[in-house]
Design goal:
Number of strands: 31
Structural class: alpha/beta
CATH architecture of one domain: 3-Layer(aba) Sandwich
Radius of gyration: 24 Å
Bound molecules: coenzyme A, adenosine monophosphate
Shape: globular
Distance between the termini: 50 Å
Strand order of the largest sheet: 5-4-17-16-18-19-20
Largest sheet: 7 strands, mixed
CATH class of one domain: Alpha Beta
Length: 632
């Protein structure tokens, strides 16, 4: 039987030019592309190579022109400040055009980079769209990263201007952003010419004369700026994500493919129509926030909710239900962690009864594996489809999903269902041969990737090829392991590299090891991701001290925890380091991280044949048991 989904998927691969050429019709072009997919020698492709457009026009101006001027475009719902602010399409356009003028006054032009380091305030979305309006390339850095991480990104992106705020508000504290920004600029070699700082009433930032100006002053002095035409293949943004080292990867997104793919995804995957309300509880610093808080809803003429709060504690586990009811949300999207947090606080879901969810249709989950008990709990409570879908910063939109707009397929718990149209998902063995159905291997995508996926890494084409294309010629390597079953359902099991997923946040254990190794008393170390009931995984550091370190191990462990918080940021959730006598290794000296992780999680494991000294594993088991891991 061929469903609408099957027909769309088949056609997207058999006739990508026809499929995406048609989808491109939903976007306003300044010059309509005559070529759809330009294939390149190594199998990759560029989409809409002769198209010219402006992403901001498509997100704002066109809707104002088409009669949506008075419809809400963005609702800022902020329980941490006790405010709700609504912007119609006309109001958001006015703000964005003016802020584009402010950036232009500071010398920002097409192709220049602008780093945005902001909490979940509407000005973050305004700044992103203003960059898009100018053809400038934004790079949003998540607020939970420390100054050193921000500095690394400043050095790589080399922005002309940084846009930031005086503070962010967490449940338990006000986070002063400006000192972090000042420190990052001090650490960086590429210094921005100017910083625009949003002064929030909870905390005023000190501005540096000549370099810094307040958001209010910048806006007051500016006039509205028009949309600048850009090539479809020009970069819209760079978003840094964890790689296997401390040097993050600068994922590049281009204008044309991004606009076409996201617009298509709204109706076909999420089934959100123009005029409806979407609520994505994430952060603009992550790809989920870029795509489904800012760009996709606005490209669609929908209303987006930008939520400055948490699933619990702001003020309680009914926070999401309140937002859904207050704003008439049709579709919500968040990470499974958020639902684990809600379930922990309100296991019976009693708070739900207080709210009217009559307009709510579906919940989408992504960012980490959706564990079946959480999905089932959410489904029983909400009595609506709960849809797990799989994607990555690199891909920009879902690779596998139950495409609600194309007719829902039967659900298999633990699987994000099937490959989305445009994505040719395969499961490969180490030699690049396809695995039989049900066998676990590397999940890879046959090239070319669909529109919206990364064309390259910022200033690092060789790293792009090495990291993603080299392992399996003709395929993009996702870095995830899993299998395809006999019905073509995708099952995502784990990473093939040292990336871990903490509360839906992607982090590199390699980067944390670099920080630990920099401590003067540490001889060697390993960071592993251990199972956590709330966050999915949390990092755990195991360190061997230099001979004669002579200091109290607990003091050193405390310093190491602080060091990761200072260098990477609180988002790493690195709370435990423990001193061990030695690390288990293979005879060739490779640290057995996977085996240690299995011990910590009390999983069955096979003694590696190549282990140097099996007794080292017993020592690790004892050390982990002493801190509450390795049950049994
Ligand atoms: N600025 C500064 N600090 C931040 C921050 C930001 N934007 N975001 C998070 N932090 C801090 C937190 O305050 C916390 O610090 P702490 O160690 O002092 O408590 C730390 O970083 C870890 O944050 P978080 O992962 O949010 O954990 P939490 O314990 O505060 O909350 C959850 C747990 C489950 C409620 C939370 O992780 C959550 O809402 N997750 C939803 C998942 C999500 O949005 N994923 C995005 C991808 S879809
Ligand atoms: P990020 O780039 O931060 O979005 O993280 C992407 C990674 O998160 C993927 O490579 C997966 O390892 C994991 N991930 C995202 N969504 C899912 C999902 N639905 N199921 C399993 N893992 C997921």
């Amino acid at each position: 039987m061929t469903s609408r989904y099957h027909e769309a998927h088949r056609r997207s691969l058999a006739d990508p030019d026809g499929f995406w050429g048609e989808a491109a019709g939903a976007i306003d072009w300044i010059r309509r592309p005559t070529r759809i997919l330009e294939r390149q020698e190594n199998g990759t492709g560029r989409w809409f190579p002769d198209g010219v457009l402006n992403t901001c026009w498509n997100a704002l101006d066109r809707h104002v022109a088409a009669g949506r001027a008075e419809q809400p475009a963005l609702i800022h719902d902020s329980p941490v400040t006790g405010t709700v602010q609504r912007f119609t399409y006309r109001e958001l356009l006015d703000q964005v055009a003016r802020f584009a003028g402010a950036l232009a006054r500071l010398g920002v032009t097409k192709g220049d980079r602008v780093v945005i380091y902001m909490p979940m305030v509407p000005e973050a979305a305004v700044a992103m769209l203003a960059c898009a309006r100018l053809g400038a390339v934004h790079s949003v850095v998540f607020g939970g990263f420390a100054a050193a991480e921000l500095a690394t990104r400043l050095d790589d992106a080399r922005p002309v201007v940084v846009v930031s705020a005086s503070c962010g508000i967490e449940v338990n504290r006000v986070v002063a952003y400006k000192p972090l920004l000042d420190e990052a600029i001090r650490l960086a070699t590429a210094r921005p010419r100017h910083c625009i700082i949003l002064q929030r009433p909870m905390l005023a930032a000190t501005l540096e004369a000549g370099r810094d100006l307040s958001w209010a002053d910048a806006m007051a002095a500016a006039t509205a700026h028009d949309c600048v035409p850009v090539a479809a293949t020009d970069p819209l943004y760079i978003l840094y994500t964890s790689g296997t080292t401390g040097q993050p990867k600068g994922i590049v997104r281009d204008h044309g493919g991004h606009a076409v793919a996201l617009r298509w995804s709204m109706e076909n995957i999420y089934a959100v129509a123009p005029g409806e309300v979407m609520f994505t509880a994430s952060d603009v610093g992550w790809v989920v926030g870029h795509s489904y808080i800012v760009y996709a809803p606005l490209l669609t003429g929908a209303t987006t909710v930008l939520y400055e709060g948490k699933p619990v504690g702001t003020p309680d586990a009914g926070a999401f239900w309140r937002v859904i009811a207050d704003h008439g949300v049709a579709v919500m999207f968040t990470a499974p962690t958020a639902f684990r947090a809600i379930r922990r606080e309100d296991p019976e879901g009693r708070l739900l009864a207080q709210y009217d969810l009559s307009r709510f249709r579906a919940l989408f989950l992504a960012g980490e594996r959706a564990d079946p008990p959480t999905v089932e709990w959410a489904q029983d409570l909400l009595r609506r489809p709960v849809i797990d879908h799989w994607w990555q910063t690199e891909t920009g939109w879902p690779i596998a999903a139950n495409c609600m707009g194309l007719g829902l397929m039967p659900v298999k718990p633990g699987s994000p269902t099937v490959a989305v149209p445009g994505w040719d998902v395969r499961c490969l063995d180490a030699e690049g041969q396809e695995m039989p159905a049900g066998d676990v291997g590397a999940l890879a995508i046959r090239l070319p990737l669909p529109p919206g996926a990364l064309p390259t890494l910022w200033n690092a084409e060789d790293r792009f090829r090495q990291a993603y294309l080299a392992a399996f010629p003709g395929y993009y390597q996702t870095g995830d392991a899993g299998f395809l079953d006999a019905d073509g359902y995708v099952h995502v099991m784990s990473r093939t590299d040292d990336i871990i997923n903490v509360a839906g946040h992607r982090l590199s254990t390699g980067a944390m090891e670099e920080v630990l190794a920099g401590h003067p008393d540490v001889a060697e170390c390993a960071v592993i991701g251990v199972a956590d009931a709330l966050k999915g995984q949390v990092p755990l550091g195991l360190v061997v001290l230099k001979a004669g370190a002579g200091r109290n191990s607990e003091d050193i462990a405390r310093e190491l925890v602080q060091r990761v918080r200072d260098r990477i940021g609180p988002v790493a959730a690195f709370k435990t380091a423990t001193v061990v006598q030695r690390l288990p290794k293979t005879r060739s000296g490779k640290i057995l991280r996977g085996t240690m992780r299995a011990i910590a999680d009390a999983e069955d494991y096979r003694m590696p044949a190549t282990i140097d000294d099996p007794a080292a594993l017993d020592e690790i088991r004892a050390a982990l048991a002493a801190i509450g891991y390795a049950a049994g």
